[in-house]
Fold this protein.
Amino acid sequence: MRNSLVTFLAAALVAVAIPVFAHHASQAEFDKNSPKTVSGVLTRVQWTNPHVRWYLDIKNEKTGEVETWMLQGSGPGAYKANGVSATGVFPIGKTYTAMIAPARDGSNGGYVMTWTLPDGTKMDFWHDYGDGSGEKP
């Protein structure tokens, strides 16, 4: 009986700990001190937790080939609290420009700091641009 209780408690502890380790700080994955601007055609949006993800087809400046980039942001609740929803704001097939904190591993991705929508509207989502001033580079 005692072994069963110890085994159960150990399993419960591991089950609770795994999600804690799975979450990460965006600063660890993305380099906010080296912002980059990218433009491309939106092909897909995943408006789900834990992070909203946008997929853009972006032309590689060196090769001329189109590459798919995955950009992510906060969770859907953070956008909803600021009046941004999945419906109507990001139509598929339109061209968007984003200032991103690029992926530290060099992959085609980043964390969205600012969006420029097809109509020219700017949406700012990251207010610390690396020097703590809140000023854009």
User: Anything to note?
Assistant: The domain at 26-124 is CATH 2.40.50.1010 (OB fold (Dihydrolipoamide Acetyltransferase, E2P)). The chain has one domain: 26-124.
